[in-house]
Amino acid sequence: LALAVLVSGSGSNLQAIIDAIEAGKIDAEIKLVLSNKETAYGIERAKKHGLPTVVINHTAFETREAFDRAMVQEIRSHGADVIVLAGFMRILTPIFIREFFPKIINIHPALLPSFTGAHAQRDAAGYGVRLAGCTVHFVDEIMDSGPVIVQAAVPVNAGDDEDTVGARILEYEHRIYPQALKWLAEGRLTVDGRHVHLAPSEA
Ligand code: GRF
Fold it and tell me: Where is the chain membrane-spanning (predicted)?
């Protein structure tokens, strides 16, 4: 796989993916780490591992479409064709999604279809659910929507808040995102409508 990893923040999921690739667990190469924010720590992480980085400041563009076109150009010019959204906090337009569909995956810190949007951990903690979790899914043109590849559930205990639940979820994000990418790299994932089928491993 020739990956472009898109980040806006800490990049701990990016780190988990880098570590899994460096450990030989995923047959993939990160061709580009792209951020819309200069200050994203994910960019530092990428540089520490010698990975190509690009920052495209979305505020410099008049429209989401213009920003998306600029991203497409950078991603293509780095030779990536699989998009890994890892805490990328911009809504993508059809211009971007149609360019790379169906090879775009995302991680969301909730058990979809519950708690879509940018504050999933806070919303789950506030709702009082007893199970929270995270979801890796293929991306379609609706935010936090496409076919689910893998989910992990974590308990929510008395006294938990957004931060404690969020930290527990994040631990599992770091497990299931590399796992999903490994399956993708092995060519084991097929999509049939809403359903993702995982073929048995050859080993
Ligand atoms: C994660 O919780 C991810 O699910 C969400 O944004 C957060 C990014 O964390 N989409 P990090 O930048 O990977 O540390």
Answer: none
